[in-house]
Amino acid sequence: MYDNILWRYLERDSFWISTKTNLTVKMKKDTLVIFERLCKKRNWEYRLPTKAQARGNRILVICGPSGVGKTSSINGVLGMNSLLNKIFNECGRPSVKLVYVPSSTTRPMREGEKNGFDFNFLPEEQFLSQMKNRDFLLYFSAYSYLYAIDGKDLKRRLLVSDPYTLFIYNLNTLQIEKFKSKFKRQPKVIFFSIPSLQELEKRRNFKGSFKEEKELRKQSTKEEIRIGKTIADFKIIGRDIESSVRKVLLYSVEEIIAPNAGISSRITRKILARIRKVIPKKKKKF
Questions:
Q1: What is the pLDDT of residue 267?
Q2: How many Cα neighbours within 13 Å face the side chain of 277?
Q3: Alpha helices in the chain (DSSP H)
Q4: Are 83 and 169 part of one and the same domain?
């Protein structure tokens, strides 16, 4: 029985169908009518999600004070792509793709960072030119530098991807409300909090920020914590990498990927149980 057929609206007059055999077919409206008749004739079960589900927002925003472990956790989550694919395939589902989308910034590149991966590092002239051309969905100033989210890039990514793709952003906490207001179905937000201010200061000593930037980040910490507690959909205390990665993955699958892809609650529970089982128990501190 084809009980897991998923219909996804991508165009006004067309639909995409995905089955558990990973077969993807594009259909026009007239073909859709014929297919529905065939399903009834052969007693195939299928589900037609609402437009809200079909066009579901596949964006996860990670935020929190500087030094709390966001970047380490995001890298850990991205490293779980192949393992997550294996779990989904074993449960009869297509492969999942977790994608980190870098923001654009005018700040200097730190040691160990890569252009196009950590950030899109732009000269100020190019940044201002793109801002003038309305390329950015959101732009703002923070810690004496300019930052932005490329709106055209995001639109393209959402258009060509499927419901099993999740886009991850690392965004300044003070800009979350403005970012969420750009969407009809608002992105999910995970806020990384801290065990203590003393622990946070120890971690910050190892970050590659410039002295003036460090002071500005330090001054905004309390305001970020206050705002983060009110706007976040889920909160994580950043104590160690493994538990943070586990929590991000579990939340992403249960609250974003499964609803958007139309995965049944039974299969979702099965996937979540396997994720809990395979994440390493050995804890590595930030």
A1: 92
A2: 8
A3: 29-41, 51-54, 70-78, 81-90, 124-132, 151-160, 176-180, 197-204, 211-231, 241-252, 258-261, 265-278
A4: yes
Q: Provide the β-strand partners of residue 149.
A: 138
Q: Looking at the 3D structure of the chain, how many domains does it have? A: 2
> For position 103, what pLDDT does the model report?
94
Q: What is the DSSP secondary-structure string of 37-70? A: HHHHHTT-------HHHHT---EEEEE-STTSSH
Q: Could you read off the pLDDT of 209-240 as tens digits, one per residue?
A: 556 666 667 777 888 888 888 889 999 987 88
Question: What are the tokens at 131?
Answer: 């801002």
| 76 shares its domain with 184 | yes
Token code pair at residue 51: 């437009």
Please report the pLDDT score of residue 55 as a whole number. 45
Task: Give backbone dihedrals phi and psi of 132, rounded to 5 degrees, phi first.
Answer: -65, -35
127 near 110, Cβ under 8 Å?
no
- Positions of the chain with pLDDT under 50: 1-25, 49-56, 206
Selection from 59, 84, 82, 61 nearest residue 276 by Cα: 84
Residue-number span of the structural domain to which 38 is assigned: 6-48
What three-state secondary structure class fits 92? coil
